[in-house]
Amino acid sequence: MTDKILRRLFASVALAALAGGPAAAQGHHARNVIVFLGDAGGVPTISAGGILAHDRPQSLFIHTMPNVGLSDTSSLDSWVTDSAAGMTAIMTGKKTNNAMVSVVPSAAKGDVTPVKTLLEYAEQRGLSTGVVTNMPIWDATPAACYAHVASRKNKDDIFRQILAPRFGNGVDILIGKGRADAIASFAARQTTAEQAFTAAGYRFSDDPAIMGQAGRAAVLRDADYAPTPAVEATVRQLARNPKGYFLMVEWDMHTDKLDKGLRHVVEMDDMIRRISAVAGKDTLILFTADHSFGLRMGGGKRGTPLAQQIAEEAAEPGVTTASNQVVSVEDGHTGEEVIAAATGPGAERVRGFLPNTRLFEIMMAAFGWKADS
């Protein structure tokens, strides 16, 4: 081969890499994508959770993730989003109105148009998929992965759509609460939840331990469960697919109940730490929140555990004011940006200030996919 031909060959490879062609794609795409969604896990909540757990700032595993950005959370019709619109933006790349789940308003008044979700793209391409949550499986955040409804309150239709997917065979592994809701919803259709899920190919149970035994499983509970073992078992099951997988894990971080919300911060952080160790280098791991919440640290002294100071303050009401309260909570969503932190293939795209819709684009690009036009 002459020097002239070699120069042309090298030039064509370089051009393909710059253009994002096959030469660029080879070896750089993620096989798997996991998005950890802290529901209401805004910057103040993450910060307080770390100090509460470890008595020092920036002490969570999330704080070690090398690629960090700040994501806008506004919805199509409001500066302050709810979980339905917030998760729709992350899962579809489209902003929508509050209360809408993976649909956008149509030109005709009152109509909506379904928008394809990242989980549906994965199903269409033969990847395995999973959704794990400590909320009901019909709630807004998990529903935005696999359902399309004009109102997040329409749980009957959400249950129906779980078992009637538009692409592939639907989500493969489903773990969450809402067992009683499912029983009531399917009873209204003269069947049982177990019969309906079994007919759709799932092993149906309330015990996350079945994850090691079933390729397709629906674990519905009405009680809390140990999160990290359940998520790790889910990852190991999904990873059996040579094509890869997509997994969404939601953990509720609302701090209207302060102790519970901050405990959930630490639980999810432990989850992310463990899964980062076992998922493999071909996995993009993304942490973000759908919206922030009205929590603020207004006081507190170093050298005394934060939990102790909160307890002492609660025992002496009226001693503190809003300006020096250790932790104060206004019960409601807030509109400021939230953290997006990532590691793995494609994580370098998470940086700076970005709209929440770009998180969908980042995950699609990590897989090497383009959204339908």
From TrEMBL:
Residues annotated to bind Mg(2+): 39, 139, 141, 250
Q: What is this protein called?
A: Alkaline phosphatase
Any signal peptide, and if so, which residues?
A: 1-25
Return the EC number: 3.1.3.1
**What's the family?**
Belongs to the alkaline phosphatase family.
What organism is this sequence from? Sphingomonas aerophila
How is the cofactor bound, as the UniProt entry phrases it?
Binds 2 Zn(2+) ions. Binds 1 Mg(2+) ion.
Q: Which cofactor does it need?
A: Zn(2+); Mg(2+)
Q: Give a single Pfam family match.
A: Alk_phosphatase
Superkingdom of source: Bacteria
